[in-house]
Every structure is written in C-alpha cells, then in structure tokens.
Amino acid sequence: MTTSTTKTKAKPKPKRKTKRKAPKKNLVIVESPAKAKTIEKYLGRSYKVIASKGHVRDLPKSTMGVDIENDYEPHYISIRGKGETIKELRSAAKKAKKVYLAADPDREGESIAWHLSHILKLDPNEDNRVVFNEITKEAVKESFNHPRSIDMDLVDAQQARRILDRLVGYSISPLLWQKVKKGLSAGRVQSIALWLIIQRENEINNFVPKEYWTIDSQFKKGRSKFNASFYGINGKKTELNDNDAVQAVLEQLDLKGDFDITKVTKKERKRQPQPPFTTSTMQQEANRKLNFRTRKTMMAAQQLYEGINLGKDGNQGLITYMRTDSTRISTVAKHEASKFLHEEYGEEYAATKPIKGKLPEGAQDAHEGIRPTSVYRTPASIKEYLNKDQFRLYQLIWSRFVASQMTPAIMDTMGVTIEQNQVSFRANGSKLKFDGFLKVYGDGKEKDNLLPDLEKGDTVQMVNNKPDQHFTQPPARFSEATLIKTLEENGVGRPSTYSPTLDTIQRRYYVKLVGRRFEPTELGEIVNSIIVDYFPDVVNVDFTANLENELDEIEEGQENWVQVIDQFYKPFSKEVKSATENMEKVQIKDDPAGFNCDICGAPMVVKMGRYGKFHACSRFPDCRNTKAVVKEIGVTCPKCKEGQVIERKSKKNRVFYGCSRFPECDFVSWDKPVGRDCPKDHHFLVEKKIKGGTQVVCPNGDYEEEPQK
After folding, report:
1. pLDDT, position 444
2. I need a labelling partner for 574 at 20 to 30 A (CA). Which of 181, 365, 482, 602 fits?
3. CATH match of 279-404 with 1.10.290.10
4. Has 703 been annotated as catalytic?
C-alpha cells in the first residue's frame, strides 16, 4: 500500500500598507485662547493655532534684572507658571512646517513675538511675523500673504519702556519700604497720575469762593412767554457781585413798562459728529455714558476684538484693535459705511467727506480708530450672543463709528437782545432742523428751545424776574475719564498704560474712588511728597512727556534705546543716592481706635493696610488681633431689629450694607437703607443713586419719593 502526499502552494502574504505621514501643519502663535479659536477657523486645516497666554519671558521679580554697567542689558527669564505653556509651544514648533508669530499689532505684541522667537530658537530675521488690525477672515488671510521679520525698533521701544519703569520702580520702591512702610511702589506714569490728583485736591482745599448774582426774567409777547437773562448796561457785559448791584439794576428799570427788541440774530448752525474712538476717548465715553471703570471697558473691548461666537456664523472678531491713538479709517470701511447709510437712512445722512479727527500730540497713527469689523453687524442683530457689558460697549463703538460717517446736524438758532433804560437782557433759542448724525449718536440733550417770532423794533413786557445769589465752585475732582483725558493732553502715557496705571494707584491705596471721583489718601500724600522732594523729574509732566516722545522716536528708528535710558538714569541715580542718605524715616502714627482689644485688653489702634484702614492691637506682634473698620449709618437692621446696619465692601471694593450681627443675621443690601418702611407694603425703603442726586424707593418697585439733588 502506498500513500501519496499532495503539496499545496502557500498563499502569498498580503503586502503591509505603509501609513502615510500626515502633512506637517503651519503653526500660528497668538496671545489668547479665544483669539486662537477664531483664527484657526479662518485659516483652515493646514494651520494649527495655539496661544502663548500673554508674555512668556520677563525681567525677574526678585531682582532689578538690568545690568546697569553693561549698557542696561536686561536679564530675561521664563515667567513662573509658564513652564507647561512653553513646553507645549516648543513641542508644537518642532513638528510644524513653519512657525508664524501673530501677537497683537503693537509694541508689546512685537516684544512678545521677539521673546517667542528666542524660546523657540527661531531666526528673528525670518519673515514669520504676521499682524492684522481686525480679526476677520479677509484681514487674517491677507496678513499671511505678507509676513515680515520682527521689527526690532518696536521691540527696542517696548524694551526701553520696560527697563525705564524697572529702574524707577526698583530704585524708589525699596526706599519707600525702608523709609515709610513695606508694600509701596512708585512708577513713572503712576507718580504723575497721583501728583495730578493731589494737585487738584490742593486747588480744592485752597479755593476761595466768590459771590456773584444773576437775574433771570420772564417776558411775554402777546400770549407767548419766554425766558431771558440780564446781560449788561450800556451794551457792555456787566458782572453783578452783590445784592446792591442787583437792586441798582432793578431800580433802573420800569418793570411795568415796555421793553424793546433791539437786535435779532437768526443763524443756521451745524453740529459736526465726533471721529471714531481712540483707546482714550473710548475709555472716557464708556465711563461717562455707561459708568464703566477703565479696566471693565478694556476687558470687554478685548473680548469683542478676539471674537464672539455668533451661532451659525461661528466666532467673529467684532471690532478692530482696541489699543490705538489714531482716528484714521480704512477706505474699505468708509465705503461699507456709506453703502449702509444709503440703504438704512437715505442719501442725505451719508457724508461725502466724513469728519477727520485731530491726532493728539505724539500719536503714532499705527492703526485705525476703533470701529466695528462690519457695519452691517448691527448691535440689535447680535444682541443675543453678547453679555450685557459686551453689548453696551459694542453699541457705543458701533454708534460712534456710524455717526462719524454721517452728515452734520443742522440747528436753526435765534438770539434776541432786549433793552430798556440802557439795561439789556439776552435770550437764545434753537430748533433742530435736520438731525443728521444725531439720529444714531445723540446724547438726549437736543431739545428744541423755541422763542416767539420776534423782530427788531418789537416791544415785550416783563412778567417777573428772579435774582439769584451764587458762589463760584472749586474745580471738580478727577474721575477716571477726566484723569485719562488730562494724562493724554499732557502727553503722559500711551493707550495701553492708562488702565493699569489707574488700577495700581488704587491697589496701593494711594487714592480712593468716592462717588466716582478720585480722592488722595494720607498714604498717597506721603508718597507723593517724598517723590516731589527727592525725584522732581519723575513728577515733572513735561519731562515725562518728552521721555514718551523719545520712546516713540526709538520705535521710528531715530533714537538709540541705550542712549535714551542712559540720559535718564545717570542724573536719576544721583537722586536715588541723595535720597538714601538724606531722607528721614517717616513715622505714620497709629490713631487710637477708642476701644480695647477683646483678646488681651490692650488699646486698639487704626492702622493703614493695603486695602485701607483697619483696627489692630497695639501690642502687635505679640497680639495679632485685627478687626475691620465699620461705618454705622444710624439705621437699625430691618431684618433682626437688633443689630446696626453698617457699610461694608465687597472683594471688588464695591460698597454694600449689612447687619453688624453677621453671621447671626444675614441681612445685606446694595442700596442704603433709610430707616423707614414703605407706606404701601411695609418693606424697608432704600436710597438709590440716580443721575444728579438720590431717590428713596421701595425695592419692590411699588413706591418712590421725589428725587433729591
């Protein structure tokens, strides 16, 4: 028996598919995650966009970080807490086809790009820097068609500012710590801001009011009545300094006789719109119209610039770059605005030559003014996607820009001079003939003030007169808006510096906001007097403004940054040496609190801390008992009927009212209780602040009293 074996052919092994490597992407580095998300959507799949989350390198906090003997060479280190971000950036850069640096289009943004090029070992001369003034698809894509190298003039200007501020701060601050108390600081722009506030306070304290009088009268022609005010005698304007002068004028008149209309002037007056916002004017107007603090304005503006999710339209940058001192507008934006105005309001509202703003002293005109990225994106059309602050600020920016491209408002005005026995009165009337830009950006004050139809030679009769005594008023304390305006007018600081400056002088408790106005504290006055006495150039407005101009010249390549710093530091270092040797230690005396420590029985005193005054035991550091300074308002708690209502402050320094028995009683109110109950529902009444005064109301909304000025 034989067996046969059949050989079977082995099946060929299938070829292993080799994985194709994914093509490398271009890496784009921006400053914020919100901005990264918006830009990545515009650029598409071949780009990866990540955020540096601000600066990655800076001067060290623990030391000066500037080698004064070696041409002020800065010693930069990676910012603490940025290790993971830097690691992520380096990893992404290694895998990238090309790295683009797309930080903000200003000095600080250029500096961030330069620091990134160092930590990522990029060639700063390579064309890898992209800038755009607005985060729209067209603007972003166009910027990648024209990359450039890092502008070292911009970097040097920013570096010079940073080193100057470090030299001032790290020279004067230790001196203040040693001679006054720990935790104090000084800086170039903040010292000027503090000095301005204290100068204004001194003007107020030294102000001597002067008496003056007015005579407001009512006249009639037939049944029509109108108001006029005393102007002068014998055609010349006359001041009324006391009641005797008033009585002399009245005795000269025949109050029951006829008065002659001796002059009637009728004119057509044009009121021009204002240009689009700069950083400064936006901060001022948001403070005036929206009651926004400067920091709040800049935070909301940053969000609008970086991009908001608009539903099906995705993330969209809504405004152009918000740090600018220019009012210039691109041709494309002007044409779009003109088209919008023709469609929405008609040809008569679209200006053929829109208003041009005057640049402030030292303005760089590097960017456009602040405007919406598309005028067709009206506030109403995107309201549902914005929070309250974003919407209000966007509405303000949109309205201001649209108004700037509109025709003037036209007013018919009428001026009348009324005379009898060489005594003259004057009346002015106006009527809005064409609203023009006021249709979009009015302030509610454009009311008609009509006079009767009067002609020269007519006679009128006096109905009554009202003499009033007045006294001249001192200048008002600075608000955030007026302080920024004054700094800008004096050429001190730049758009990016105003918000942090105002924050710093409040955090250091050099000033406090009372009724939206700055008042200097005792600590602020002490620090200011030291700087004025020992470092006069630091608080010299002209000197600081000239220094700002020199920084601008560095940016333009006309000045060497080392020489600018050297010219400042050599005389300044001598002042530091003199102050160190000659300044006496300032003793801030602790005022007695008027009660004893409830732990050890020693007298309590009032001390000055970072956030204001507080009570502390006089035996500190042996006894560390402290208590908050509370201010009673003279009202019994409406909830528990036992404690007193006291004034407190939230973490954001906002005043509110609570019970002194907290936490046993949890009564709180943002509005000040007045100690009376509502006659309708017996709820406690509160005092609300309104424009021009206060008003007592019921929180339930069923009752309100007459406003009080």
Report:
1. 65
2. 181
3. yes
4. no
